[in-house]
Amino acid sequence: MHKISMLGAGLIGMFYTQTLHANRSRDRVHVLYSRTEQKAKEAAAAWDVEKWTTDMDEAINDPDTDVVVIGLPNVLHKEAVLKAAKAGKAVLCTKPLATNAEDALEMLQAVESAGVFHGYLEDLTYTPKMLKTIDSVRKGAIGKVLWTRSRETHPGPHSAWFWDKGSSGGGAIVDMGCHCIEISRALVGKEVRPLEVVCWADTQVHPIDVEDSAIGLIRYESGAVGQFETSWCFRGGMDLRDEVSGTEGTVWLNHWLRTGFEMFTNVGQQGYVAEKAEGDKGWLFPVGDEVAELGYVHMFTDMLDALDGGKKPMEDFYDGYVVNTIMDACYRSVASKRWEPVELELWRGAEGAEEKGGFVDYDQQHYLIKEETMPDGKTKLILKEKSSGRIVERIVSG
Amino acid sequence: MHKISMLGAGLIGMFYTQTLHANRSRDRVHVLYSRTEQKAKEAAAAWDVEKWTTDMDEAINDPDTDVVVIGLPNVLHKEAVLKAAKAGKAVLCTKPLATNAEDALEMLQAVESAGVFHGYLEDLTYTPKMLKTIDSVRKGAIGKVLWTRSRETHPGPHSAWFWDKGSSGGGAIVDMGCHCIEISRALVGKEVRPLEVVCWADTQVHPIDVEDSAIGLIRYESGAVGQFETSWCFRGGMDLRDEVSGTEGTVWLNHWLRTGFEMFTNVGQQGYVAEKAEGDKGWLFPVGDEVAELGYVHMFTDMLDALDGGKKPMEDFYDGYVVNTIMDACYRSVASKRWEPVELELWRGAEGAEEKGGFVDYDQQHYLIKEETMPDGKTKLILKEKSSGRIVERIVSG
Amino acid sequence: MHKISMLGAGLIGMFYTQTLHANRSRDRVHVLYSRTEQKAKEAAAAWDVEKWTTDMDEAINDPDTDVVVIGLPNVLHKEAVLKAAKAGKAVLCTKPLATNAEDALEMLQAVESAGVFHGYLEDLTYTPKMLKTIDSVRKGAIGKVLWTRSRETHPGPHSAWFWDKGSSGGGAIVDMGCHCIEISRALVGKEVRPLEVVCWADTQVHPIDVEDSAIGLIRYESGAVGQFETSWCFRGGMDLRDEVSGTEGTVWLNHWLRTGFEMFTNVGQQGYVAEKAEGDKGWLFPVGDEVAELGYVHMFTDMLDALDGGKKPMEDFYDGYVVNTIMDACYRSVASKRWEPVELELWRGAEGAEEKGGFVDYDQQHYLIKEETMPDGKTKLILKEKSSGRIVERIVSG
Amino acid sequence: MHKISMLGAGLIGMFYTQTLHANRSRDRVHVLYSRTEQKAKEAAAAWDVEKWTTDMDEAINDPDTDVVVIGLPNVLHKEAVLKAAKAGKAVLCTKPLATNAEDALEMLQAVESAGVFHGYLEDLTYTPKMLKTIDSVRKGAIGKVLWTRSRETHPGPHSAWFWDKGSSGGGAIVDMGCHCIEISRALVGKEVRPLEVVCWADTQVHPIDVEDSAIGLIRYESGAVGQFETSWCFRGGMDLRDEVSGTEGTVWLNHWLRTGFEMFTNVGQQGYVAEKAEGDKGWLFPVGDEVAELGYVHMFTDMLDALDGGKKPMEDFYDGYVVNTIMDACYRSVASKRWEPVELELWRGAEGAEEKGGFVDYDQQHYLIKEETMPDGKTKLILKEKSSGRIVERIVSG
Predict the structure, then answer these.
(1) CB contact under 8 A, B288 and A25
(2) Angle made by CA atoms C361, C365, C366, in degrees to the nearest 5
(3) How far is CA C347 from CA B330, C174, C318, D109, in A?
(4) Which residues of A touch C279 (CB under 8 A)?
(5) Is the pLDDT of residue C272 over 90?
(6) What would you report as the CA-atom Rg of chain C, rounded to the nearest whole angstrom?
(7) The pLDDT of residue C355 is above 60
(8) How many angstroms separate the Cα of D184 from the Cα of each of B315, D148, D189, D213, D243?
(9) Number of C-beta neighbours around residue D56 at 10 A
(10) pLDDT one-digit tens code per residue, D343-369
(11) Dmax of chain B from CA atoms?
């Protein structure tokens, strides 16, 4: 059983606490920290947490606490991590780890020096669908990974601080691109080095100083490309979809708007629909168990089981550092309007480009380009003559 | 914390135990009973259960045990329940409660006389989607409920005993109709009396003595109709869908084959796809967290929280008894080829038919039948003259 | 090229005329008949039809006309058909053919005696998806057909006469059940005799004299069951779905609300969404080419090509007669509350029950009941011993 | 009625001819040209075309011909267009118009100088779903367009020439990017100038000299971004999806793999499934009326109606020229690894950047950033103080 200090009383703190307390759990949040007294008090009451405080040090250093969970605005992560490391407490930090790679590296080094357990709370690699997908992909179900795509778009975040560069450190890239980038790494393989990125970002709609939309491509040493699409301008709810394609298959995941739960109501849904839902009449698309679908359940299980078992969790601060490094390259690319290298000072993955797969032989003289069933039922082969390079076509009866 | 004796080491016992042990749980299965020694031994090892036995009494009367969970073939439920009641242990019994209403009533009376906690393990009313749907429907999101529809079809059960009338007591109706019927009750409202049923059943494909397909209609006192469709002849995996329609809206749930998880693989999925999946190549439809999607997580949370809190769980033996009574009427209807009354000796719901809603007035002279936007953008009204009963049409500009 | 007299200027007349005039067609509607002058005049102008009249005889007997298309309220079909037959014109009649089997038979005999071409305008067996499905099913793609299901539900028809028993002859069964029944026949095979039906119907919501909801089952000589679900009480648009299951597969068709066209609009769709759509804000589900998706394009192509080629179209008056006969049995079943025989005076299909398929052998001693991949990757076989009838289980390594 | 010379006897020629002859059409292909005699002869027989030839001039100059349709490999389009223009025949050319902007401009000038009717056969802007979407978007249903996304991926083209740079002039960009780019223009508005592009392309899998995968972004003067994704490496069939997002809504179109037609077959579909389908067992996703779903029906209707009516069709050679110009910029970007300007020598759209919409006022002191319903039912407002730029949060009761 763990006694947890929760730093932060916003939506993320609530989702985290709900998850930690749910389903016959043996763990408890027992201290809640918020910068504002009223929020701390109210949330502690609502979520059945024993103590609350507006003093971060008190929350971290509580003698009963063995785990600090950070659910604060981005710019406060570093301070909280450094304090928890100093206090010798296990520390779990929400995404993004930091607002830039330099800070992330310092935080990584702090927890590693202190020898404390560290977990990076990237929930979206822990959704039940994503865990099964990663497993299948690693086992070869779709062959060599060629392309990943991750989208998170919605009508904008729920708390004011996200929209304020001073608190968030950035816009859609920092808020949601971090999810998409880590999903891409998990699918391509974390051992594969991200080489370079190109990124578009713009403030298309809102009166703010950060980007409200961004699209980026990450090129990996294996030749795979990771595509991400993020926006705070999307209307219709929260669109949370991932895809991965390989030489032998593909996986499509829809985490939010199309999960087999569809409702039409002429009079209103009479309550909360789902995070970022718009409206409560007409066709609605609720989500079953939100915290489970968002990965929180499996994430905290992995984190606390790893802590109990003396193991590394699936996502730790090194992952957070890599993501921050890729995001830094994205912002440079937005400014330079060109591909920019991913400058990883610390690389713990594999070295050396993965070999491109050899071509597929049809027979000794030909490579196979394509095989297809035609409308008339026959099979058409497209072949390349190895000697001449000439491309030829053969019809084989179905 | 509860110490649980699990009776049964088949697929259902495994799903139950996985669920009870999952996600930082404070409860444990500590005795496992199976009729065959090898199964008991292997399952105990695989699921990390301390003790095993082939003696049902030993499992039930274990001094550390405070909860008995029954995951045995249908015909053994009664014996196990009676023993657990006698031992004064809380008892949770899988579906169907019994193989007929008479036994079910005897079991209900046994646990009530003994004063032990009793839960009916009807997981499919506990799926996260269904819990939210029940909540919305009860709050009025779809108006007055008119129609429910529940389908469970797949290529047939996994254990031999299901196919053997001596162990199962029946076919698709007993195996899956029980789910569908309870889903219907939960959506229509358990306080509403089921009046009569009509049911078709046949052995369409398999060399067995029980029905492998059945379709039934339950008519409720409120005028609502509950439709169920069950089959062991379906090809393509497990089709688990529910719908409910009311005067103001509708809900469509897909629990299994279309949940936002789609995979194409040319080389095979390289592992388990999902319960009742067929094949592991081509387009596959895995399920995220199976035990959560099937309702086990929320079911055991409700059961054990209710036990701890001295409350009634959402599903108890009375519900199991009502379901058995409805199923008995279904079998009578199959034989008589006509509607048959639901003969509830013990009715704990509301008495007296719910009033039909009055008609909707358009103005003092007319009832409103229909309002529709036409292709040309205008609105067409269909009205009934109160005095004459004449039906008239009015075009109103859009 | 055909010159067509269109009888009826309602929605169905408009859809028919739009279809007949569309896409570089060589055919033309050149006379339009409506009972009310204003409607006739306006529709003729809107649809670019040369002549209009309020005199049915004039429309039918127009010397240039070679084809009469009937798109009138149900009770007027008979009069129009008899006149067209007398005039020696090809006649295409919308669904249902008549309001009862007796009239339908008289109409069939009239056109056959007169030797005129006759087509039954059952569009929903002609949707592009249904045509391909029928073709696949007939070729054996899903094995022996066991079960069909057809649903048409929406918030009620667009014209007043549907709601008035005097004009329509019935409610949801006559209006939409006729579609579902013919779809079932097309999938089971029109040569297979429908034996008996059981049907529930009720007036659940509206101030009318006919049923606004009905569910029925048709049992065929082959053992297949055809299920239909119809309602004028459904909220959320028009739900138009069909399914067919067989021993080797299944097909699921969605014709309307989920066809790969999804729109969210916060400000309104700014125009017509789709037939029977409700509301124009929030999530909407328009349909691509409505008349094509509803089968009108392929239906008229088949009808007029058959007429040109001296062939029988896919749907003719005999089909309409069978459908009316089945509907008559449905109404009798609603009244008697039991299965009722389908009383076909005239049966042109196959005689003698189709044989049930033999059971599948696993080896000489056993029938195969079931084969399934378990979560641990192994394969479980369920077998029946031929000699003893005992059901046994075998685990085979994956 | 038109008499058409069809140049090309491959899959595209077949789809075009099928469409032109379908559904009671009054138009006919009466000459078929192919470079190889056997193909010409066989296709003419199969498609019921009166004459065939291997002489392009003969096909174009046939005295009965008034329309030349070009369905040839990309590098032959220019020759065929110049000949048709010289012959004074109406000319409809398949996509892409040319293999580069310079040729496309020359072709445009040739048809304009000759005064012949010219149509650009970009079918995917003519799909029924896309036509309705364009109409809704133009009418304001989704507000100001911010982002479009178009994907065409499949396992590679059916004819050898596509894979051969000498015949195709390029890979996935030229083959499929042209569709995606024109879809983007149609949704953003053709009057809006495309300013610059960034593009990634690679040869990920095949033994060929052109790109088999490409992703690109087009930035428009209005601030909108058009994203395209093309690949010949996708496994699972043909993925044909489009999306458009605006300030007030979004539209999602799925043209191929998820259109409401789903089939499981254990024994094989017994025939053609759909263009680019892989395998014919397990879960399959056929398409209703392929030529209609792909836009051919509405495309030829628009083209020939425009020709008859002396109007411009929706897509003409100027559109083809703009698409080629954008693709040229894409290839430059792939080489330079940076954003590249779209160099339109000839711009016929609007001049001057569209104004960015002003910000939304909440009250005199504040801009509105966001309004959201929270899990507790309250409404949270995020506002920006106009004077200070400070971002603040207000909770309003639901």
Answers:
(1) no
(2) 45
(3) 33, 21, 9, 67
(4) 281-282
(5) no
(6) 24
(7) no
(8) 54, 6, 8, 19, 9
(9) 21
(10) 999 999 998 766 555 678 889 999 988
(11) 78
- Among B11, B14, B391, beta carbon nearest to C160: B391
Nearest chain D CA: its distance from C270 CA (Å) = 6
Q: Residue A60 is encoded by which pair of tokens?
A: 């971290």
Cα distance between residue B127 and residue B94, in whole Å? 15
Contact (CB<8Å) D283/B281: no
Contact A180, A151 (CB under 8 A): yes
| A63: Cβ contacts below 8 Å, ≥ 6 apart | none
- Residue C125 tokens read as 């067996």
**Which chain D residue has its CA at the smallest distance from B237's CA?**
D264
Residue A242 pLDDT: 98
Walking along chain B (398 residues) 10 residues at a time, the average pLDDT comes out as: 94 93 93 95 95 97 97 97 98 98 98 98 98 96 97 92 93 97 98 98 94 98 97 95 97 97 88 78 94 96 96 98 98 98 96 68 89 77 89 82
Which two tokens mark D114?
A: 């000759």
- pLDDT computed for residue C335 by the predictor: 98
Rounded Cα–Cα distance for residues A9 and D277 (Å) = 51
Neighbours, chain A (3 or more CB pairs < 8 A)? B, C, D
Taking the CB of residue A358, how many other CB atoms lie within 10 A of it? 8
Rounded-to-integer distance, Cα B358 and Cα B364, Å: 14
Query: What is the predicted pLDDT for the residue at D354?
Result: 62
Q: Please name every residue paired with B340 in a beta bridge, in sequence order, or none if there are none.
A: B197
pLDDT at A167: 92
Query: Tokens in use for C397?
Result: 């390594």
- DSSP class of residue C295 equals T
Q: Residues B108-144: pLDDT tens digits?
A: 999 999 999 999 999 999 999 999 999 999 999 999 9
Per-residue pLDDT, averaged over A115-121, amounts to 98
CA distance B338 to B325: 17
C-alpha B246/C-alpha B142 separation (Å) is: 5
For residue D91, report the phi and psi dihedrals to the nearest 5 degrees: -135, 130
pTM of the model: 0.95
Distance of alpha carbon A82 from alpha carbon A103, whole angstroms: 11
d(CA B308, CA B67): 11
For residue D236, give the nearest of A149, A231, A250 by CB distance: A250
- Which residues of chain D carry a pLDDT beneath 70? 353-358, 375, 398
Identify the pLDDT of residue B393. 87
SS (H, E, C) chain B: CCEEEEECCCHHHHHHHHHHHCCCECCEEEEEECCCHHHHHHHHHHCCCCEEECCHHHHHHCCCCCEEEECCCHHHHHHHHHHHHHHCCEEEEECCCCCCHHHHHHHHHHHHHHCCCEEEECHHHCCHHHHHHHHHHHCCCCCCEEEEEEEEECCCCCCHHHHCHHHHCCCHHHHHHHHHHHHHHHHHCCCCCEEEEEEEEECCCCCCCCCCEEEEEEEECCCCEEEEEEECCCCCCCEEEEEEEECCEEEEEECCCCCCEEEEECCCCCCCCCCCCCCCCEEECCCCCHHHHCCHHHHHHHHHHHHHHCCCCCCCHHHHHHHHHHHHHHHHHHHHCECEECCCCCCCCCCCCCCCCCCCECCCCEEEEEEEECCCCCEEEEEEECCCCCEEEEEECC
Dist CA B104 CA C202 (whole Å):
33
Chain B hits for A255, CB-CB cut-off 8 Å, are: 260
What ipTM did this prediction achieve?
0.94
Strands laid side by side in the A90-94 sheet: A51-53, A28-33, A3-7, A67-70, A90-94, A118-121
The answer to whether B81 and B119 have CB atoms below 8 angstroms apart is: no
Phi, psi angles (nearest 5°) of residue A106: -60, -40
Six token digits for residue C328:
């008559």
